[in-house]
Design goal:
Strand content: 15-25%
InterPro entries: Acyl-CoA_DH_CS, Acyl-CoA_Oxase/DH_mid-dom, Acyl-CoA_Oxase/DH_mid-dom_sf, AcylCo_DH-like_C, AcylCo_DH/oxidase_C, AcylCoA_DH/ox_N, AcylCoA_DH/ox_N_sf, AcylCoA_DH/oxidase_NM_dom_sf
Number of domains: 3
CATH architecture of the largest domain: Up-down Bundle
Bound molecules: flavin-adenine dinucleotide
Structural class: alpha+beta
Helix content: 40-55%
CATH topology of the largest domain: Butyryl-CoA Dehydrogenase, subunit A, domain 3
CATH class of the largest domain: Mainly Alpha
Protein name: Acyl-CoA dehydrogenase
Distance between the termini: 32 Å
Number of strands: 10
Pfam family, one: Acyl-CoA_dh_N
CATH superfamily of the largest domain: Butyryl-CoA Dehydrogenase, subunit A, domain 3
Number of helices: 10
Low-confidence stretches: none
GO molecular function: acyl-CoA dehydrogenase activity; flavin adenine dinucleotide binding
Order of helices and strands: HHHHHEEEEEEEEHEEHHHH
Family: Belongs to the acyl-CoA dehydrogenase family.
Radius of gyration: 21 Å
Strand order of the largest sheet: 1-4-5-8
Length: 375
């Protein structure tokens, strides 16, 4: 796809930041399982968090295509930082931007758009994420306040020093799911310790608990009872963004494997001169290319106001598979070094599996695609 000069310049600026600022240091954060708050704040200064948000609240009013370009460039060197942005914007801040009141937008969006504050979206519960309409967390109205009780799990950005807001889904009546915003520090809200994760180790993922947690009635985000439809809609954008992230990962694996294959010698010649390695690289290029076409196609439809749910599912299913396959092949090309945590491809290998699980598993994407076929 041919980008406008503005899109190409933005992608180049993010690429430069990712290559010069994130790439040299992220491996150490990853090993320590530490959230790189200052890097995330600096990305905010580049305008990455505000890309899709309204101009009047500090955003750039651009679309998913522009955000996807940024996510692809970040994920090309590291998926942890990319998912921090992805979850904060497409699920968190977008919930406020698309469904919030004017007062909520004025209050929360400027910091979220600047990337100095982060928003978490808490949908998944210990009893299940796929069947998200079944929400055990309850909220009842009492004297002008929502009183929330329940637990969420695997919530990205829930416990960082930058977290401004957690938007949680809760059952507010029979068959009625709503979204309610809770600010850190609210009595009755607690956030558990960071999980010990296989991958995405420099991102923040935690359980969240509500125990008689009281917030003003005005913290309802969107219409009461519309929470289920709201998050289904948000997840469509999230899937396009996660497909862009997956494409970046697939491309990053190709970048690393190609450089290694040209340099590493075996039997007196670079391993890239063996057809088996060259063909592996060709397949990796094909996967990154088709994944890019898929997420961009879905993003353009979304930005043009067309329905894009099936395209988002196609893009996410295809791009996550491309990331997994490229991580496997890149690791193979690196040989034993590919099994060492110090190499970026080992990180990609650990990071890629969640791409087939988060924001709707592969099974969910296939269900959506099959449904679009009338089966
Ligand atoms: C690192 C990380 C970050 C995350 N960040 C967030 C976040 O910010 N916010 C949030 O709300 N959630 C988040 N999640 C949760 C994630 O979205 C869920 O893990 C995912 O949706 C799957 O839900 P589950 O883990 O409960 O699996 P389950 O729903 O228990 O599913 C288990 C398996 O059964 C399959 N399955 C279930 N139902 C069916 C069916 N009807 N037909 C066929 N197969 C089926 C699934 O596809 C899956 O393979 C995160 C998870 C991780 C690991």
């Amino acid at each position: 796809m041919r980008l406008t000069s503005e899109q190409a310049e933005f992608a180049a600026a993010v690429r430069d930041f990712a290559q010069t600022e994130i790439k040299p240091v992220i491996g150490d954060f990853y090993e320590r399982g530490e959230f790189p708050a200052n890097l995330v704040r600096d990305l905010g200064k580049l305008g990455v968090f505000g890309v899709t948000l309204p101009e009047e609240h500090g955003g750039a009013d651009e679309g998913l295509l522009m955000l996807g370009l940024a996510l692809e460039e970040i994920a090309r060197v590291d998926a942890s930082v990319a998912v921090t942005v992805e979850a904060a914007v497409t699920l968190g801040a977008e919930a406020v931007a698309q469904f919030g009141t004017d007062e909520q937008k004025h209050r929360w969006l400027p910091r979220l758009a600047s990337g100095q504050g982060l928003c978490a979206f808490a949908l998944t519960e210990p009893s299940g994420g796929t069947d998200a309409g079944h929400t055990d967390t309850r909220a009842r109205l009492e004297a002008g306040e929502w009183v929330i009780d329940g637990a969420k799990c695997f919530i990205t950005n829930a416990g960082t020093e930058m977290t401004d807001l957690i938007i949680a889904t809760a059952t507010t009546g029979p068959g009625e799911v709503s979204c309610i915003a809770v600010e850190p520090g609210t009595p009755g809200l607690s956030v558990g310790p960071e999980y010990s994760k296989v991958g995405w180790r420099a991102s923040d993922t935690r359980p969240v608990y509500f125990d008689g947690c009281r917030v003003p009635e005005a913290n309802l985000v969107g219409q009461r009872g519309e929470g289920f439809h709201q998050f289904l809609h948000l997840l469509e954008g999230g899937r396009v963004a996660l497909a862009a992230l997956s494409t970046g990962s697939a491309q990053g694996c190709l970048d690393e494997a190609l450089a290694h294959a040209k340099e590493r010698e075996s039997f007196g010649k670079p391993i890239a001169t063996n057809q088996s390695i060259a063909f592996m690289l060709a397949d990796m290029r094909l996967r990154a290319h088709t994944a890019r076409l898929a997420w961009m196609d879905a993003a353009v439809k979304a930005d043009d106001g067309e329905s894009f749910g099936t395209d988002a599912a196609l893009a996410k299913l295809h791009a996550s598979g491309a990331a997994v396959d490229n991580a496997r092949d890149a690791t193979q090309i690196f040989g034993g070094y590919g099994f060492m945590n110090e190499t970026p491809v080992a990180r990609a290998w650990r990071d890629c599996k969640i791409l087939e699980i988060g924001e709707g598993t592969n099974e969910v994407q296939r269900m959506l695609i099959a449904r679009s076929l009338g089966v």
